[in-house]
Design brief:
Nucleoside Triphosphate Pyrophosphohydrolase, seven-stranded mixed sheet, 5 helices, single chain, globular, alpha+beta, 276 residues, six-stranded mixed sheet
Length: 276
């Protein structure tokens, strides 16, 4: 059984542990990110919302959402991306990812998009309901694809202007309404680098909490075409040998997993496991 079990917990119940979140940052200290909940509530923090998240190693965990970053003695704030890049505890990162996405969902649905009335949390359910028109909203996921295009011992990697300097990664994009993921892969590759692909293979998925994506990962083989980069989206794209790769994405990311799996297969090495 997983040590993390999402649950809708009653915030009126005392006790448990709590995370403190603000703008994709979490409060932490030398012991980690979980603090005694009742102790936190005595610290005069600018809490604007509270959510019962679930059970972590059997203990109740809640989320305290702040409207601004606030200093506390012995504590510091760390961004969710830093936890992803530096941490080696997949279960803890899953809890933080879940908390960040619940926070985003609740903040984005404070008011009804249909009639403008205030939304309220539904007791015992992960939902926000409008008291005016009874419109109801659940946590949102945005499906997207991410693909490594291959050509024998070569892989296609690209750079976006938003990337860390020097890092190359796979291609990615959001699924459009009425579009299958398979059609999305072919369209995005065509749009971003001007290539046609074939032999699509699904490898796995990963929740991506920046802010609420579900990344569906693929390998695809090169079919035809020359690289033509999409203006304003792709800064550079080229073929790299599996024996000579540039700086790559973080090891916890599905982009890195897609690359590492293909390299392992070409070199006859053990395949990595996709981080949870």
């Amino acid at each position: 059984m997983s040590v993390w079990q999402p649950r809708v917990l009653d915030c009126q119940q005392p006790g448990g542990w709590a995370l403190v979140h603000c703008r994709q940052h979490f409060l932490t200290d030398s012991n980690g990110v979980l603090f005694p909940r009742e102790w936190l509530k005595k610290q005069d923090l600018p809490v604007v919302a509270e959510h019962g998240l679930g059970l972590f190693r059997g203990d109740a965990v809640y989320l305290l959402e702040l409207d601004q970053l606030q200093d506390m003695p012995g504590c510091f704030w760390q961004g969710l991306r830093q936890f992803m890049l530096q941490g080696d505890d997949d279960e803890t990162f899953r809890v933080l990812s879940y908390a960040a996405q619940i926070s985003t969902w609740a903040a984005d649905h404070r008011f009804c998009g249909r009639c403008g009335a205030a939304m309220q949390q539904v007791p015992g359910e992960r939902a926000m309901r409008c008291g005016g028109c009874e419109q109801q909203h659940y946590p949102r996921l945005s499906p997207s694809m991410i693909v490594l295009v291959t050509r024998g011992d070569e892989i296609l990697l690209a750079r976006s202007p938003r990337f860390v300097s020097g890092v190359y990664s796979t291609l990615a994009g959001f699924v459009e309404p009425s579009e299958s993921v398979e059609h999305c892969v072919a369209r995005e590759v065509r749009e971003e680098v001007g290539l046609e692909i074939c032999n699509l293979q699904y490898l796995g998925s990963q929740g991506w909490p920046f802010p609420h994506s579900l990344m569906l990962g693929f390998h695809a083989e090169y079919a035809s075409g020359d690289i033509v980069m999409q203006a304003d989206e792709i800064e550079d794209a080229r073929w790299f040998s599996v024996h000579d790769l540039p700086p790559l994405p973080a090891s916890r990311s599905i982009a890195r997993y897609l690359i590492d799996v293909y390299v392992a297969r070409r070199l006859g090495q053990p395949e990595p496991v996709l981080p949870g």
